[in-house]
């Protein structure tokens, strides 16, 4: 297949900015032919580029045309009429637990306990059935894209058989895909308009430079100290030289970044952020102002709210 | 190892030159009648016939259902079939060897045809290098 030489030399988006593209965090609905032809990133293997968008997670819907079963997994070949791709679907151990006898019920023998066990069994059975497919069935897979032995495949994080007797699901998917492409995937990735650094000389490039340097400083510190978790207080000193040269808004943003890194799994509670910011900068900082700032960051996909009051970054 | 992708075709396109011999296609049509031909020592397998309508013209496509047996035909019902085309010189013309056959009675035909047309239109507009494989299967040899 002829490759446009201009594409091969085109610069990739720097990896530090990948989190700014919402497509990167989503399970992209691409045609399988595109999934198979995407280029792998030169910066980080395992991440692929569809035009200007970095991505590594996909969502496909198609007919099963190939099936291979092993002890631990199913390998389904999925055909969406544009291409065929292998999907590795791991079996769940809990489905194998069919040996539960009716004797092991609640010793008190209450009828309530019996019903729950029964329902649970039926639920497990239904779950298991939705994962065993035959050729001709419709399969929906969401998973990460991997290249193994020169072939692209999807390692499913979730998959299930779709009951589509009227073909309604397939039809609506066919109608939806061109729209998604036009509105999202085929649009060039635009750097979000940098309101935070607009008035500074150099504007957005200055801000990104700061971001890169702060990330680098944190990484070096982590490597040196060999810590996996740290308090924001411990690392703020690293950011001070960078912070002095930036505006107040940028400082707030950088501090936020710092907090979020500290509680990557669950996220950082908004009150924690508020109290730390008050300590460092101004007692007058109100929760409402902070929440406006956090909502702004969330809209730009810089941060994600894990619960109503917790925030984290990817 | 994996079979080639089965491109959507309308039933009336199957008999024409639009589809290459050996191509994988998927299409749908109404089951008209089902023939079971068993010749001694050489069971030919079962054949079904699907019919579709474009404007006022009716067209038929023969479907070989050996791979999807046991097949309980419901005459007059809508079916969706995925399989390989075989062009024969005989009376039957084109035979579709079904790999997957399912009853889709109640499907919104108009909407489905609209969806297929929209997908084709989208692929035609794309940069040729990207959909080289796809468009090659749509055009005549």
TrEMBL record, chain A:
Keywords: Chromosome, DNA-binding, Nucleus, Telomere. Gene3D superfamilies: Nucleic acid-binding proteins, Winged helix-like DNA-binding domain superfamily/Winged helix DNA-binding domain. GO terms for molecular function: DNA binding. InterPro entries: CST_STN1_C, NA-bd_OB-fold, RFA2-like, Stn1_N, WH-like_DNA-bd_sf, WH_DNA-bd_sf. GO terms for cellular component: chromosome, telomeric region; nucleus. Transmembrane segments: none annotated. Residues 264-314 form the Stn1 C-terminal domain. It is found in: Chromosome, Telomere; Nucleus. Residues 43-93 form the CST complex subunit Stn1 N-terminal domain. PANTHER family: CST COMPLEX SUBUNIT STN1 (PTHR13989:SF33), REPLICATION PROTEIN A-RELATED (PTHR13989). This is CST complex subunit STN1. The gene is LOC107572935.
TrEMBL record, chain B:
The keyword Nucleus applies. This is CST complex subunit TEN1. Its main location: nucleus. The keyword DNA-binding applies. GO terms for biological process: negative regulation of telomere maintenance via telomerase. Pfam families: Ten1_2. Gene3D superfamilies: Nucleic acid-binding proteins. One of its GO terms (cellular component) is CST complex. GO terms for molecular function: single-stranded DNA binding; telomerase inhibitor activity; telomeric DNA binding. It comes from the Eukaryota. It is found in: Chromosome, Telomere; Nucleus. It comes from Sinocyclocheilus grahami. Transmembrane segments: none annotated. Keywords: Chromosome, DNA-binding, Nucleus, Telomere. Belongs to the TEN1 family.
